[in-house]
Structures are given as C-alpha cells and as structure tokens.
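# nightly structure sweep
# worker-07 picked up a monomer target from the shared queue
# config: single-sequence mode, recycle default, output format = structure tokens
# input follows
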Amino acid sequence: MSITVGDVVDLGRGLYAWLPPKRGWGLANCGLLVSSRGALWIDTPYDPFLAGQFLAESQKRLPDGVDIDRVIVTHANGDHFWGAGVLPGAEIIATREAREHIHYDPTPQQQHALVAGSDPSTPLGAYLGRHFGAFDWSTTEEVRPSTYFSGELELTLGEYTVQLSSLPPAHTGGDLIVHLPAQRAVFSGDVIFSSTPQQPGDHPVHWAGPLSNVIEACERVLATGAEVIVPGHGPVLDPAGVREHMGYLAYVRERAHALHAAGVPAVEAARRVIGEARYPALGLPERLVVTIGSEYRHLDGSGLPGVLEVMADVAAVAHETDASCAGGPA
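# output follows
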C-alpha cells in the first residue's frame, strides 16, 4: 500500500469533500466548509502526512485572512481524528460519548509501535503491515476534543448553519452526523460506508452496534432531506445510495441473528457470511468479523474484547480467505 493524496470535490456554497482515490483501512473522507468569516473541517485524515496534504488543499480555498479554527469529529477512530494535530489551537468538537472510544483505541504512538514491531511472518503482523504500514504516527501526539456535547448542537459559520446530531451507539459509541441545510448535504461519518458500480468500496466495520442502530442512523440521515451524502468512506451518495446501503446492513443483521440462533460462534458466522459472497465487489470482507462480533455481543451480552484480540481474528480470517482464493491451504 502507498499513501495516496485525496481528491477535492466542490459540493457548492463553500462546501468541499476530500475523497481518497483508493479504498482501504484508514482512508477516510473529510470535509471543508468555508465562509468569508471562517472555515472548519469535518473529520481529519489519519496521519500528519495526509493531514498536511488536506491542509494545503484547504488553504487554497480560503479567503484572505480566514483560518480553519474548528474541527468536527464524527467519531473518535483515529482515521477521522488524529490528523487534527496539524491545526494547533483549533477547537475540536465531539460527542460526550466519544470519550469512551478514545480510551478504547490505542494512542497514535502505541499503534505506530504495534505496526512497526509486529512479526510479519504471522497473520496479524502481515495484516497490520499490509494495511497500516504506510501510515506514520511516530511523532503524532494524542489529540483531545476541547468541546463535548450531547444531543444537538447548532453552529454558525458566517452565513451558514451547521447542525450536529449525536447518535446512539452505532459504528462506535459517540457517533454524530453533520447536516448542512444550505448545501443540502450531510456528512455521515462511518454510519455509512459507500460503494457504487463505478467506485467499489469496502465492507463496513462496526465496533459498537447493534446494526439496528446503524440502520436507524441511516434513516436519520435521510430524514434531513439532504440530496448529497458524504459517507465516512467511499464515493458520495444520493438518498437512493443510502437506501441501498441499508439493504446491505439488513442482510448482515439477518444473517448474524440466524447464525447466532443456530449456535454458530461469531467468527465462524463471519466466515459463513463471507462464503455466501452476496456482495462480491466489496473489499476487506474479513471486517465482517468485527461487525458480526459486535452484533453477537448485543444478542448474548458478552463483554467487549480488546482491539488487538479483534484484529487477530480479522487477520486470521483474511489469511484464510486469501489462501482459499489462491487455491492453497489456509
């Protein structure tokens, strides 16, 4: 994997989306809103290199005398959050519930050490190196939100209104959506991962759930009346694209519930859903291990495992899937 610089899409009325041209772990969409009186980011890239590229592209679009002084964080995963360090002094806004997920994830330097220090001869080490090895957090300091809110928060940026709505646990505990009424747009964060025939995406990965909450979050996005939906990952969607994505979520939920009722363990359930190949264009099918595991916890009341434990299962299933596709032993 090589680091790729994002494409900037003009969505109109001072709103831009920064869209990585490749799919994969960590390559998240971000937003820039510009007015004559200020500018803000919606999410950030994963590491300082990508964040610096987004900052350079953003500065090309700023009026004289305007700086980016706010960052809205749709959720606390590092690929939407850790790049905020390139804007020292900016107000960072997140939900109160996001605090818990910040504590769940490793810090940037812990993650850098984990990726750099993992044994590439093991499935986990090989997987981390392949999917995360191109990012560099060796000098990335932890960033923390400076403003927390619950429920709804309305901001004003020049002539534009920005409406933030916190969500029940869905992709993570602490998700929010950003509605921009003047632009008829929503930034959904990772409650939506998109894919189109022209731009295939990846299987979503949901750490919290249940999937019914993720589906309800998609319904809240549609209820805004927005015509343009910028997902956390993948191409920009219209409402029909969101509804199609909800069909995917309903399918995974139905299969998880049926397999759980049949007594199939969570990781094996993920293997079986992968084997059904219902969505063959989507990449990273091993991420179903995370999503189905999260759904199982809501069904049986089990505790939340550590990130490394979950990723070891993800890497093992990816190794099996790759070996199967190559016609060799798993």
